[in-house]
Amino acid sequence: MSIFDMFRVKKKLKAPWRKYYTDEEFNIKIPDISLYDQVEKSTGKYPDYKAIEYMGKSITYKKFMKLIDKASISLQKMNVKKGDIITICTPNIPEALIIFYALNKLGAIANMLHPLSSEEEIKNSLLSTKSKYFFFVDMFYDKIKDVIFETDVEKVIFISPADSLNIFMRLAYNISQIGKYKRYPHHKLFMSYRKFMRLSLFTESKPCPKFGRDTPAVILHSGGTSGKPKNVVIQNRSFILAARQEQIMMKNLKAGDCCLAIMPNFHGFGLSVLMHTPLALGCYSILIPKFDSRKFDTLFKETRATCVLGVPTLYEALINCHNEKDLDLSFLKYVVSGGDLLSKKLEDDVNKFLKDHNSKAIITQGYGLSEALAAVTLACDKINKSGSVGIPLAGNYIKIIDPATQKERPYGKVGEIVINSKALMMGYLNDESETNTALQVHKDGHVWLHTGDLGYMDSDGFIFYKGRQKRMIITSGYNVYPSHVEEVIEAHPAVLQCTVVGVPHPYKQEVGRAFIVLNEGYHKLLVKSSIKEHCKKNLAKYMIPQDFVFRKKLPKTKLGKVDFKKLQEDSGEDDE
Asked: For residue 116, what are the CA distances in angstroms to 144, 149, 266, 543?
């Protein structure tokens, strides 16, 4: 039984945003189908439309579905069953989506992992999810060669970013990579993606298990409200609902339109909004495996994308590009910012840029988090107020509460943002305590997700996001949890104490600055490089602090706690 069905006596929830939806839209229904079913339906309607574009090469819905079905047969041959967890750890390449939907067809669960994760993070993810198989990019073999044998993984399937390129581009890519990274050795644990796909030859598909919307589909990764890494279990229903919600809000998005998938597949926002939703609506997703912000304008000219969603730094990059003299953006319908606060100045600058380049679109904002499959609110078209992150998507409810008492705050008053939705996570994998902290039943009888985020709602139901309760750092749109970084640094034998704070950065918004107190007998000149190497081994690249500052002691508040505010205002110079 779903947690959403456990509490039947519920009070009617307030929804001042109700007026922006029709009755049918507001009372949105979720069909009892899977993600695979939803894409299969699009294939039946638009077999010859593009489903994916990758490095200039297009894959139609019909071809995409054939590749998914072949991959599912190969997975069956490897004895993948309903409920098995399989890890996918790649950039935005077609193979990631092919395997994602092939797993979904079988009722298996895709654990989506960041390819820039450290070797320890990869190992811990494989162990905590008990992953049976591991789809990984071959260029990062060095990252797992020392840890993969410490896991229960039965087979590593290596994918090359060139696997989906045409023969000439593949040849050029392979030549360009000679000597750049170590090739994985011949070993029974390892298999190429091409060999994996050949397992399907001369084999018919076995009957697939019956399952629907309430079956778990994906594991995403989040620090939740506590900052500790967690495995977020998401059902099929969340993706299916999200696709319908975004169709309702983005009314000008039509079959055949395209979304620029710059946000990664291991991010709920990227996987749901930029990949699954377009496929569910007959649109196509332009996969960007490695984004070059300096050529953003050229990317627009080449792709003529209808829709782009990203973090504020993405749009800063766009307005600073000067590669194309006569850039025409008249084809652009939707420009959405999420993942961090969009300043009023940047909002105005982007809107001027869009207008100067013939686009009728304006930049709007959305809000969400992994525990609710990324998108919870959205502003689009005429449903928009400057500075807001929009209204709750159809079927979602938000209220603003006093975190201490759970009493609802009046309109215009800041409090914690809590969410009720049928798209909420099932919970954190094997972590009942943290799940119960995040998902709480209130006196109204409804289950609410406590976000740890602050904001307020106006009388029309628009949400205005004000920041995090915790000390989370957002760098280039990625969430960095200081407590996790501190724990890693303090594991170094030379470190007595470490505190990480976020400091402003002209492009990345924020970066981490680590203030370190060394154990007696160590000197900063002798251990600084060692600490940095320790971080490189145990933290994803974006998590590593930009600055390492050495102190004899850290400032304290009157209560004896580390004074984070003083450290954020600190100039960052070492003590003598």
From this structure: 11, 19, 11, 10
